[in-house]
Design a protein that fits this description.
With 207 residues, the protein is mostly helical. It has a domain at 1-19 and 68-187: Rhopdopsin 7-helix transmembrane proteins (Up-down Bundle). The protein is 74% helix and 0% strand. The chain is built from eight helices and no strands. It has helices at 2-16, 21-24, 27-45, 69-108, 112-146, 153-177, 179-190, 195-198. Helix 1 packs parallel to helix 4 (69-108), helix 4 (69-108) packs antiparallel against helix 5 (112-146) and helix 5 (112-146) packs antiparallel against helix 6.
């Protein structure tokens, strides 16, 4: 989840500070941020080993053994807040992308219908990504708030499995929606690129 949030922030900054983004976001800065993020996540993951667990009081266990009910609630609420922040950032991204697309359309005298089609494609891809993320994670987060260790384990696994597979689904969505990724897959698997890709114009929705 923190990785997805970091990607969202990076996308927002790449549009909001388009002129200075590449000079500010150096490789060293990116590596430092990734290391910091993973260190933070590792620290949170190690909390049960440091005593934040319910091993001494089984009645305090949540569905996420050995995490306590209170800690599971904090994690679930934190996730919902992070998701709300991601939604807000993506709304801002859409506003900036719309403005950039209109400016590009005016400068290059694009046909209005073609630009509208490109914008709809970009929005549909974004909606698909966010919708999949919400469907995979929100049910599990809400279940963590209302359930306890007395609930059947099969319920927990049935909701946790889609959440853990979300990061596997996103690349598949991008592969089917982004021509650049499709070209890379064709080259990796077949060693060639279909002629339809070379003649296809690049649009703002491909970014």
């Amino acid at each position: 989840v923190c990785s997805l949030l970091a990607i969202t922030v990076d996308r927002y900054l790449s549009l909001y500070n388009a002129l200075t983004y590449h000079s500010e976001r150096t490789l060293g800065f990116t590596c430092a941020m990734v290391l910091l993020m993973w260190s933070l996540c590792l620290g949170v993951g190690l909390l049960p080993l440091l005593g934040w667990n319910c091993l001494r009081d089984q009645s305090a266990c949540s569905i996420l053994r050995p995490v306590t009910k209170d800690n599971a609630a904090v994690l679930a609420v934190t996730f919902l807040l992070l998701f709300a922040l991601m939604m807000q950032l993506y709304l801002q991204i859409c506003k900036i992308a719309f403005r950039h697309a209109q400016q590009i359309a005016v400068q290059h005298q694009f046909i209005a219908t073609a630009q509208a089609t490109s914008t709809r494609k970009g929005l549909s891809t974004l909606s698909l990504i966010l919708g999949t993320f919400a469907l995979c994670w929100i049910p599990f987060a809400i279940y963590s708030l209302v359930a306890d260790s007395s609930y059947p384990v099969v319920y927990t696994y049935s909701l946790a499995l889609p959440a853990t597979c979300n990061s596997l689904i996103n690349p598949i969505i991008y592969a089917f929606r982004n021509p650049d990724i499709q070209k890379s897959l064709w080259l990796a698997c077949c060693g060639c690129v279909p002629s339809t890709f070379s003649s296809r114009p690049r649009t703002s929705s491909d970014v």
